[in-house]
From TrEMBL:
Protein name per Swiss-Prot or TrEMBL: Ribulokinase
Phylogenetic classification of the source organism: Bacteria, Bacillati, Actinomycetota, Actinomycetes, Glycomycetales
Enzyme Commission code(s) on record: 2.7.1.16
Metabolic or biological pathway: Carbohydrate degradation; L-arabinose degradation via L-ribulose; D-xylulose 5-phosphate from L-arabinose (bacterial route): step 2/3
Carbohydrate kinase FGGY N-terminal domain location: 10-280
Reaction(s) catalysed by this chain's protein: L-ribulose + ATP = L-ribulose 5-phosphate + ADP + H(+)
InterPro entries: ATPase_NBD, Carb_kinase_FGGY, Carb_kinase_FGGY_CS, FGGY_C, FGGY_N, Ribulokinase
Origin superkingdom: Bacteria
Length: 554
């Protein structure tokens, strides 16, 4: 089969933080024939467990596996029907997931939270990517690795995140050892959903490398794990499995999964992937030097390089992690859209909400209108974008956000603008850190829900001093998955060919304004000063505040 075969389609399924989306795309040219979304019944579980009502501690974030299966049962049939194509036309299915979203299961893949005796145990549930309650374990993982001179640590910028597999696994052991012992498998949701689709456990090279500390084919040693905690020595056994390359075939759709989705049993299922990394294919950015920023509730930055470089605070550099034959670099910001949503929920007076409603626009659109015409720096503010901690380049989720320069004259739209600018500054910090480490970044490609805000995107172009190419698909991860499905099904020889044919971008959609860029340089210098002061040891004020809050909440 070739990519030009008429009528052939691929399905990409994107499992996000609050919902899952399915896209039906033409294999020939990537046209999106239809899409459908299924909102998770339980969403992000951050306050109490479903059913039992057991309260969750600070910084916890969980999900329900049933929500993911419901996406298969609802979004896929709906997208197929809306596209007006038959199951016979579907040559392949691929999925992507937030990561590290990880769960404990039995040997056959049953989530522990679905066993009656464990439903009211928080650690039995999948830990969502933004579960940050394992920061203490992450700190020890990093300290012990540094003391021992573990060779893999520099590949992660010198720090392993509390969001990743080992920190969350160590937290499980130390806070619920019975459940740790009961968990035969510790598996990324990206791999678990493939298990449900094709009936076979697989492990993808992307999550294994970036979130599971697999470097040069090896995981951290038993001796290192025992140094963390003697009971942790055999942790690797819960994850050990041959790794599969991105774009490879994982298996074929089972009869049960065919009943869920309305597809034919035997349909090709591709190896699982991560939402950010898979988007590189839909953004036509699978070559070196093309940074893709997937901008939504959080932002993940991925870029390929031809050479191995070690950059401070990166989420990892992994051979073949994004595109076969290249070194894939990942960085990210734990909160972006989440920060804006927090402010509109908690920091905006009722009069603003009412004014927006009268206009028939969202509060975000209203605040944007008010903020957009203000000269750069006129608000006298600089914010730190750490409301969900700092993923890159500090890798410290004990940090929290701040807004400096507030006065009695400060208005809500000015704070909103400062928060938007802060997230752009955070992205610039990541770009500059990579470039200084020797990783070329020649093009900045933006994707995700925040593209809808044109003023925000222009602000990023001005702050970065770079033109911004935009992904024109509103379902970038799902389309990226569909592109990988086409490769797994044999429609294209590799991801380069499939991306060229099926990807959707507008080059240089935003170009920096020289005057605004100059003005933002001054603000960025202040941001950089505060970033290093509060984040690199000049002051422990934000850490101390977090410690006080944690202790007070116990």
């Amino acid at each position: 089969m070739t990519g030009s075969d008429n009528g052939a389609v691929a399905i990409g399924i994107d499992f996000g933080t609050l919902s899952g989306r399915a896209v039906v795309a033409s294999v020939a040219d990537g046209r999106e024939l239809a899409s459908a979304e299924h909102v998770y019944e339980h969403g992000a579980i951050e306050e109490a467990l479903p059913g039992s009502g057991v309260r969750l501690p600070r910084s916890w974030a969980l999900q329900s596996p049933q929500d993911w299966v419901d996406v298969l049962k609802n979004a896929v049939p709906a997208a197929l029907a809306a596209a007006g194509v038959s199951a016979d036309q579907v040559i392949g299915v691929a999925t992507d997931f937030t990561a590290c979203t990880i769960l404990p299961t039995t040997a056959d893949g049953t989530p522990l939270c679905e066993l009656d005796e464990y439903r009211d145990r928080p650690h039995a549930w999948p830990k969502l990517w933004k579960h940050h309650a394992a920061q203490g374990q992450a700190d020890r993982i990093n300290a012990v690795a540094a003391e021992r001179g573990e060779s893999w640590l520099p590949r992660y910028g010198g720090k392993i995140s509390s969001e990743w597999a080992y920190a969350k696994g160590l937290q499980l052991l130390e806070e619920d050892p019975e459940l740790y012992a009961r968990a035969d498998r510790w598996i990324e949701a990206a791999d678990w959903i493939i298990w449900q689709l094709c009936g076979e456990e697989t492990r993808n090279s992307c999550t294994a490398g970036y979130k599971g500390i697999v470097q040069d084919g090896e995981r951290p040693s038993r001796e290192y794990l025992a140094a963390l905690n003697p009971g942790f020595a055999d942790f690797n056994a819960k994850m050990e499995h041959p790794l599969s390359a991105l774009g490879d075939k994982a298996g074929e759709l089972t009869a049960q999964a065919a009943e869920w989705t309305g597809l034919n049993a035997g349909t090709v299922i591709a190896v699982g992937n991560v939402d950010a990394h898979v988007t590189a294919a839909s953004a036509k950015a699978v070559g070196p030097g093309q940074m893709v920023a997937i901008m939504g509730t959080s932002t993940c930055h991925v870029v390929n390089g031809e050479e191995l470089k070690e950059a401070q605070g990166m989420c990892g550099v992994v051979r073949d992690g994004i595109t076969k034959g290249l070194w894939g670099y990942e960085a990210g910001q734990s909160g972006v859209g989440d920060i804006f949503a927090w402010f509109t929920k908690n920091g905006v007076p009722a009069s603003y909400t009412e004014a927006a409603a009268e206009r028939g626009i969202s509060i975000h659109e209203y605040l944007t209108e008010l903020a957009a015409d203000q000269p750069v720096g006129a608000h006298g503010l600089v914010a730190l974008d750490w409301h969900s901690g700092n993923r890159s380049v500090l890798v410290d989720h004990a940090l929290h956000g701040a807004v400096l320069g507030l006065g009695l004259q400060t208005r809500p739209e000015e704070i909103y603008r400062a928060l938007v600018e802060a997230t752009a500054f955070g992205t610039r910090m990541i770009v500059e850190t990579l470039v200084k480490a020797g990783v070329p970044i020649d093009e900045f490609v933006a994707a995700g829900g925040l593209l809808k805000n044109k003023w925000l995107m222009q602000t990023y172009a001005d702050v970065l001093r770079m033109p911004i190419t935009v992904l024109t698909s509103e379902q970038g991860p799902a389309l990226g998955s569909a592109i990988h499905a086409a490769v797994a099904a044999g429609a294209y020889p590799d991801i380069h060919a499939a991306s060229a044919a099926m990807g959707k971008v507008e080059r240089n959609a935003y170009v920096p304004d020289q005057a605004r860029a100059d003005a933002y340089d001054r603000l960025y210098a202040v941001y950089e000063e505060l970033h290093d002061h509060f984040g690199r040891g000049g002051s422990r004020a934000l850490h101390t505040l977090n410690e006080i809050a944690v202790e007070a909440g116990k």
